[in-house]
Amino acid sequence: MKKKLHIILSLMMVLGLISAAQLFAGGSSQAAQAVADGPTPISILTPYWSAEIPEDTSIFQKLEQMTNTKLNVEWVPSTAYPEKAALVIASQDLPEVLASYNSIWKSQFIVEAVRAGMFWEIGPMLNNYPNFMQQIDPIIWDYSKYDGKVYGIPRQILKRDGNLIMRLDWLDNLGLKMPQTTDELYNVLKAFTTGDPTKTGRTDTFGMAMNGLTCLNIILMSYGMTPSWYEDKDMQILPPFYQDNYMDALKFAKRIYDDGFVNKDFMATNAGNVLQSFFQGKAGMVQGWVGQISDGAYDAVYTNSPQARIGTLAAFKGPDGVLSTFANPGFNCQYMIPKPSVKSQDKVAKILEFFNRTMDQDVFDLFVKGIEGIHYKMDGDQTVIIDQPRLTKDLAPMLSLYVRCQILESLKISSKEGRRAGYDFQFQDLRDYQQMDAFFITAIPTAQLNQIMNDANTKFVTGDINEAQWRDALDSWKKTGGTALIADYTDQNKKLRH
After folding, report:
1. Whole-angstrom Cα distance, residue 316 to residue 302?
2. Residue 424, Cβ neighbours under 10 Å: how many?
3. What is the pLDDT of residues 118-170, one digit of tens each?
4. What is the value of pTM for the model shown?
5. What is the enclosing helix (H) or strand (E) of 101?
6. Order of strands, sheet of 152-156, starting from the edge strand that comes earlier in the sequence
7. Cβ-contact 423, 414 below 8 angstroms
8. How far apart are alpha carbons 107 and 104 in whole angstroms?
């Protein structure tokens, strides 16, 4: 079990350091010198999502060997990570690499730490690492900046990741097609609830299992709106609920709730219970994303319904008739290097070289399919996984350390139809609505502000408040700090544009 790897300090005292000039020069001489100096120790703080703390697996050990490093990783449960990150920053008891995930990267404690000079600015160094410049979209570097400067290496993810997972075989059984408008979505949800999509002669299914109101995203798109903050004609940055017909989308969500097409406890039910409804064949749709299709957890669908076919629903036609999809900037974490723990540019360069090396194909293969002969074999050009449960377990530590988009490659090599469809979905000719995340505003609404509108939306859908009371909540949001936040976001956006 790998909570922290032990570093032999006495050994490191006799190891020579490579000069910053040599490291920034790159090339074969750099690699040869690094090997001569022995493994580079790097301490990392990062969350994990597996059921147990990641172990010191054969894949992880191979990563250290191939990158000539000794990784001292502290794994923190994802739910506890924001608190842990805030604590280490406040105490300045920092690792050499801090994984700043989307749950904290815009939080006030990170923003203040950046502006106080706690992290290395790495922008001027990036040209020395070809993988960073060749494999990471320049737009991602722009999006990830704090006040116009780069302070972290972005961890790439799917740009189009979907919104709903659907039983395609249910559509076939009912003679329906994938919905592309809200009217079509309503009809599918109704048929899943009142019809017989399982062909059992019973009406014991329902349309969609929900945990929260994430489904509102695709409804908003169908009404021609963006689910995120957006820039208006006056260059103001505004929240989604400022859009003129936002209420129409809420009324649609209320309609499918009132008609019994979704679970009534959608705000109280945890994500696990929601998934179970889908796994057990009770719900025809569930909130999800393409990377989950046919993943280990979703194999439960096939266990209960061997004939099942599942796919993703994320593209909707707006009023202009153009097929659109919700998108994100293409990253969800930055690996940041704190100055209190990394004193020299020499060590900064070694850390950057580690992440750059992970993007080389031979190393990146570890993040996707493990070790040949142990986790996979090649059948011509086709990758064949030998032992999926072992691969899933052994990959657990790698999922917190990659830079290249691991899930995209995993979808690409999969032999499963659903996962291949998820890969193809990334490259369909769909227009992306402009998302607020594209501006990477370095602040986030307070929990209180978020709660005001989240509660108002939920209560309107469930019928606990009416439209006038919802607008009262919006006024409260403005007075509680929303108006000031809009001004701050707008000001930051204008500075980034000039």
Report:
1. 27
2. 12
3. 999 999 999 999 999 999 988 888 888 888 899 999 998 877 666 788 999 99
4. 0.73
5. strand 97-101
6. 69-77, 40-48, 97-101, 331-336, 152-156
7. yes
8. 5
